[in-house]
């Protein structure tokens, strides 16, 4: 069964797919590590199938997760060739970062300030992302193992352009007959 407009069927993308799921989370983890200076393994995805052991209360670390993905309502179809067309759209990815530990306020503040540095944003662009907006830091102490742990949260909005290629064939010729005078 074909995956193009020569057959009456559903079309799925034919080209490379965007980084999603674990690949996207790894990119976000590297970004947060780079801006906070936290050691490797101390920036963790918030929701994983197998939860790693809880870090000690006196350890600084970050949990992050994607909480919302929205896209523009009007994608554009570009780069039409004889065999395909690209659908271009923009997504907004909303992430929540929670910074834990005795130095969580300082680390979250350092992360927030790092968002404002143009070289850091250039590195984010290499990942195919750009900074949209971010919220203030919110204190949200958490009771873990019957001990209060310092925690600061913030929400970051990132943007990215997605390009999906579909087998939309161009119309090269149409048999047309004219009748009458």
Architecture blueprint of SSEs:
Blueprint: H1 21-36, E1 43-45, E2 61-71, E3 76-78, E4 85-100, H2 104-114, H3 118-126, E5 130-134, E6 138-139, E7 142-144, E8 147-149, E9 151-166
Parallel strand pairs: 1-2
Antiparallel strand pairs: 2-4, 3-4, 4-9, 5-9, 6-9, 7-8
- Percentage of residues assigned to helices: 10-25%
How would the global form be characterised? elongated
Mean pLDDT: 90
User: In angstroms, what separates the terminal alpha carbons?
Assistant: 44 Å
Poorly predicted ranges: none
Number of strands: 9
Structural class: alpha+beta
Proportion of residues in β-strands: 25-35%
Description:
The protein has 3 helices and 9 strands; from the N terminus they run αββββααβββββ. The two termini are 44 Å apart. The longest helix has 16 residues, at 21-36. The mean pLDDT is 90. Strand 3 (76-78) and strand 4 (85-100) form a beta hairpin. The chain has a domain at 43-48 and 61-166. The protein has helices spanning 21-36, 104-114, 118-126, and strands at 43-45, 61-71, 76-78, 85-100, 130-134, 138-139, 142-144, 147-149, 151-166.
Summary?
This protein is α+β, with helices and mostly antiparallel strands.
């Amino acid at each position: 069964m074909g995956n193009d407009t020569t057959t009456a069927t559903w079309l799925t993308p034919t080209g490379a797919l965007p980084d999603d799921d674990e690949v996207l989370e790894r990119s976000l983890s590297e970004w947060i590590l780079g801006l906070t200076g936290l050691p490797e393994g101390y920036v963790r995805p918030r929701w994983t199938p197998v939860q790693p052991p809880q870090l000690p209360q006196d350890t600084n670390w970050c949990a992050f997760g994607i909480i919302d993905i929205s896209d523009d309502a009007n994608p554009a179809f570009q780069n039409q060739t004889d065999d395909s067309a690209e659908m271009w759209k923009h997504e907004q990815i909303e992430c929540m970062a929670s910074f834990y530990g005795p130095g969580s306020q300082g680390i979250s503040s350092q992360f927030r300030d790092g968002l404002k540095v143009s070289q850091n944003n250039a590195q984010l662009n290499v990942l195919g992302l750009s900074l949209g907006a971010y919220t203030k830091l919110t204190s949200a102490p958490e009771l873990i193992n019957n001990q209060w742990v310092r925690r600061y949260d913030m929400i970051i909005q990132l943007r990215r352009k997605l390009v999906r290629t579909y087998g939309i064939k161009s119309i090269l010729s149409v048999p047309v007959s004219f009748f009458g005078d």
